Amino acid sequence: IRAVIEEKNPDLAGRDEVARQVGVGAIIFSVLATRRTKDVDITFEDILNFEGHTGPYVQYTHARCASILRRAGGVPETADLSLLSHPEEWEVAKMVGSFADRVALAGRDAEPSVVAQYLLSLCEAFSRYYNLGSGDPTLKVLTEDAPTAAARLTLVAGVREVLARGLWLLGIGAPEEM
């Protein structure tokens, strides 16, 4: 993980700590993402991947959200969430809103994989939404329209917070940068 971080972000401060969080988190996530009644097959090549259904992917998405918020100068104090009008925005918003239900279900069933799988689904939904801005500038989070940007930044902040709390529940660090 340290070699990957050095290649992708050689100027990252605290890269040893981030590498430790990601490496340890990858192992924990791979175990907890599988239903507890199933066998776990650990292949380091697979679980250390930053793409796909892995802990590093969830941690990277958290760091991406944190980066967006840093570039914007933080989260706006107020936002009109009715400006979130695109279906992908609402899909992400509904997923953020279902976090407490997923945690309750995981607790009721003593099944941490419910939280891990939820985090993966949230990351996928967020990535689909965020990548829309590449094809359509009006869908960028950091749009020129300040009220819309405030609503979208609030959504990003919600995703970042849920990912951080979900990772914490699984005993995994949530680096702000990777």
Describe the structure.
There is one protein chain. By secondary structure, the protein is mainly α. It has eight helices and no strands.
What key attributes describe this structure?
single chain; 178 residues; mainly alpha; 65% helix; globular
Short description:
The chain has 178 residues and is an all-alpha fold.
Biggest β-sheet description:
none
Number of strands: 0
- Structural class by sheet pairing and helices: mainly alpha
- What is the terminal-to-terminal distance? 10 Å
Query: What Rg is obtained from the alpha carbons, in whole angstroms?
Result: 17 Å
* Number of alpha- plus pi-helical segments: 8
- What is the H/E string? HHHHHHHH
What's the topology here?
Elements lengths: L1 H7 L6 H18 L11 H4 L7 H18 L14 H11 L1 H11 L3 H23 L10 H24 L9
Helix pairs in contact: 4-7, 4-8, 5-7, 5-8, 6-7, 7-8
